[in-house]
Amino acid sequence: MSMLGKIRRLIEPQQGVQVPLPQERTNNPRPTTPNVLGLRRSNATKGTPVGMAPRNGQLPKVQGLAPGPGKEQVWQNRRHQLPAALTPGRPEQQHRREEQRLTPQEAAMFQAAIPAAHYGEQPAPHAAGNLLPRQRQPQAAPQRPAQAPHPRVSPAEVRPPSTGRPSMHPQQRYATNVPMAKLPPNIARLYHQQNLKFSPETHPAFTNANLMNRPFKVGSGAFNTVYAVQLKKPDGGVLDGVFKPLSITENGWVAAATGIPRNDPQIAMRNIATLSYAKKLDVDVIPDTHVAALEVGPGAQIEGPKLGLVMEKALGMEAGKAPIEMLERRDVCAEVTKLQLLDHLTGQGDRHSGNYFIDVIKPSDEVKVMGIDNDQCFGHRLTNPNEIQFINNRTNYGFRGTSLPPVVDFEMAIKISSLTPSDIQVMLGDKLSEAEVRAAVARLEGVKKHIVQLEAQGRVIDPKDWDHFDVRQLLTAENSYIGRERERALAKQAQALDPQRPNAGW
């Protein structure tokens, strides 16, 4: 059976027209008729010449012409377009003879008679302009609507795939390709890999040219490896610091709980934003942080430089190892509380006792507190400053902070109360996403409200009163870093005097 006959037989039963099937031919088959429509036959009829019935006596299946809703009506509407040679009811033999004499115009008319839904189009009234034959590839299935060509993307514009999490601010995400001509290609590639915005704050302050000694590994945390470096400063001085290569993923518990994207964590921006916040409050509790591109570790010359953060080396000892005598000092209490308030403002929920250092500088006897590892902060889900507190339940067990302090000094109270949402937007708008900036504003309002409550209770004190007995009684392991470390130190001291005494998990 011819292709035209196949299609006619698929359509005619809907109108009640009965046409007997042609008998199979076994000798001198007529030459196959060109496939006018360019339709592809199914595998069941592969090898059967056009114009002959299949050997199983069944109609061949034409892909794309399965009965569908509305097809009969479309056929009725277009029936008047058929030429006389294709009118239903004509003898089959005559159809075959006239079929070979179809002009291109008649073939186009038959093509127009096929329901438009077959081509993914809407039926349109017949018009003279539609009689032009379609340009279709022979023996091909009906073509899908053409798609727009994919734009050519240079390797420098490749970015990590979307994760479905809140995207970074457009000024940050798409500014990485603007000034890259100022950087060597190998370093520019590192910025693109990290999706790191290039700005004066993220410009590589140190490269291999500044290295005075080969970096060496000093330790590895749960997710990062840290190297000790000695670098020559632009002013000729020497910086003894640490270098932490950046990672393109963040697997921390706090990061996941607070909404920091796992595959685009922007760790550099979060560290720089923390330092900016500390400078805005005029508190020296965060080490100087700079972006650097250095070769570190074995095989560094083969792998090339790594993009990371160079930070001022924190001196002194971990807070969890500080003796009770140090923790009872007035200046230590004041400085540690400054760091705690900053963590509430930035949403830093990973400030355990090993994440900040206390140093008593000799011979001046000054105290310096430094908070390190500021990667898991500024999450957009954390809007309540109290939510960084560790609570032994299903939702807060991974946090390492405390609740807001029960007392503050008036110096910090004035600095925090003077901040406005506009200050936060200007300070963080070019570093964080809009949702993260809004969360930072909400945390600021929460801390300011807490200070108002403390003032009403008479708990805004003079900085000289941090060593007062009544003040120390208010500081506990649940509401302050200093109370937590003091409780830990007392437990260690008691265990040293009585080895049989349990250490209470410290």
Summarize the structure.
Helices cover 31% and strands 10% of the residues. With 506 residues, the protein is α+β, with helices and mostly antiparallel strands. Mean pLDDT is 77; it is low at 31-54, 56-69, 74-90, 95-100, 113-134 and 147-178.
Descriptive report:
The chain has about 500 residues and is of the alpha+beta class. About 30% of the residues lie in helices and about 10% in strands. It contains 16 helices and ten strands. It has helices at about 5-10, 70-80, 90-100, 105-115, 170-175, 185-195, 255-260, 265-280, 300-305, 325, 330-345, 410-415, 420-430, 435-455, 470-475, 480-495; strands spanning about 215-220, 225-230, 240-245, 290-295, 305-310, 315-320, 355-360, 365-370, 410, 460. Strands 1-2-3-5-4 form a five-stranded antiparallel sheet. Strands 6-7-8 form a three-stranded antiparallel sheet, with helices on one face. Strands 9-10 form a two-stranded parallel ribbon. Helix 11 (about 330-345) packs across helix 14 (about 435-455) and helix 13 (about 420-430) packs antiparallel against helix 14 (about 435-455). The protein is globular. About 30% of the residues are buried.
Architecture blueprint of SSEs:
Layout: H1 3-11, H2 71-78, H3 92-99, H4 104-113, H5 170-173, H6 185-194, E1 216-220, E2 225-232, E3 238-245, H7 253-258, H8 267-281, E4 289-294, H9 300-303, E5 306-312, E6 317-318, H10 324-327, H11 330-346, E7 356-361, E8 366-371, E9 408-409, H12 410-417, H13 421-428, H14 434-456, E10 460-461, H15 469-474, H16 481-497
Parallel strand pairs: 9-10
Antiparallel strand pairs: 1-2, 2-3, 3-5, 4-5, 6-7, 7-8
Helix pairs in contact: 11-14, 13-14
